Amino acid sequence: MSEWSVAEPRKLTFDEPVSELHVRIVNGTVNVVGTDEGSARLEVSEIEGPPLIVSQQGGTLTVAYEDLPWKGFLKWLDRKGWRRSAVVSLAVPGDTRVEVGVVGAGAVVSGIHGPSVVKGVTGDTTLVALSGPVRADTVSGNLEAQAVTGDLRFNSVSGDLTVVEGSGSSVKADSVSGSMIVDLDPDGPTDVRLTSVSGEIAIRLPAPADADVEANTASGTISNSFEGLRVHGQWGAHKITGRLGAGTGKLRATTVSGSIALLRRPPKEDEPWEAEAWEEPEPATNTSPTDATTDPVGSAQDDSGDNSVSGQGDGPTAAPADGTTDKKVL
User: Fold this and answer.
1) What span, in angstroms and rounded, lies between the C-alpha atoms of 265 and 57?
2) How many Å is the maximal CA-CA distance in the chain?
3) CA dist 320 to 232, 241, 315, 324, Å?
4) What is the pLDDT of residue 53?
5) Which range in 26-30, 226-230, 235-239, 300-304 is most confidently predicted, on average pLDDT?
6) Given this model, what pLDDT does residue 78 score?
7) In whole angstroms, how far apart are CA 61 and each of 34, 74, 290?
């Protein structure tokens, strides 16, 4: 086993093959990028406090503090140990299995094809262009996933989830008070399961969509942009049910007191080259893309073309009881 103690800014190149990467830091930043190169490179550009221990054994490369274990990572509350910081950048082969743990640090992982696991206490995490399965657990840290094509699993107490152009076959998320904004552009059927206690949930599906839909909120409001779905509710509880397209995908969303909004993605040929994430080209009375980005749930409720309800779903905008409609289902 090769080992280095890094107490000041330093660069290291590892000639031996790397198949697994383990990183654990407190405060600062971790950047991990997948490359086509066979070797791995490490740069520690800033460091304060105790040294980082860098070790390579077999195909496993580890960059961590000696007193910060992976097991029980999210419960590590040694406040004296928090008085440290490091900025760490790593380039590894794209098929590397990646495990990143951050206590108060931010983490960015991009271009990885192998499995990725991220654990964070308060730091925010950004995932970009990951094609392998992804598991992310946080206490209060937020997660943003951009162009992730692998299966995504997210658990948090109060952290928010934002998915932009997600095209994986599965998106599953659980949070107590965190909000969820999920923009999907799948290549095939997608299994989406979102659960929150008090957080708001906004989901944007492509048009035409292909999903069996069931969304529930016990006391929040519901907004729906799909005419093929039935919106109903009673005594504060609201629900959206129905089938879009062949119904081969699944969409399940549940929140106790938060609101739920189902938004419609415009067809790809109608999308501008640099379209905003939540832009809806019609009807003409829609809110601006900027407003929709900052408050997707609120903007969906203001849309005169949706089926928003605050009570029993038998108003003029609700679909017939049998779920049919004279208009073409998008």
Assistant:
1) 47
2) 71
3) 11, 13, 10, 6
4) 96
5) 26-30
6) 61
7) 14, 21, 43
Task: Provide the pLDDT for residue 310.
Answer: 42
CA-closest candidate to residue 92, choices 147, 25, 19? 19
CA distance to 95, 189, 196, 277, per residue, from 260 (Å):
37, 21, 11, 18
Q: What tokens appear for 177 in the block?
A: 């008070």
Please write the tens of the pLDDT for every residue from 253-266: 999 999 999 999 87
Cis bond upstream, residue 208 (ω within 30): yes
Per DSSP bridges, beta strands 125-128 and 143-146 are parallel
DSSP secondary structure of 229-284: EEEEEETTEEEEEEEETT--SEEEEEESSS-EEEEEPPPGGGS-TT--TT----ST
Cα–Cα distance measured from residue 262 to residue 225, given in angstroms and rounded to the nearest whole number = 6
Joined tokens for residue 267: 């067809």
- pTM for the model: 0.78
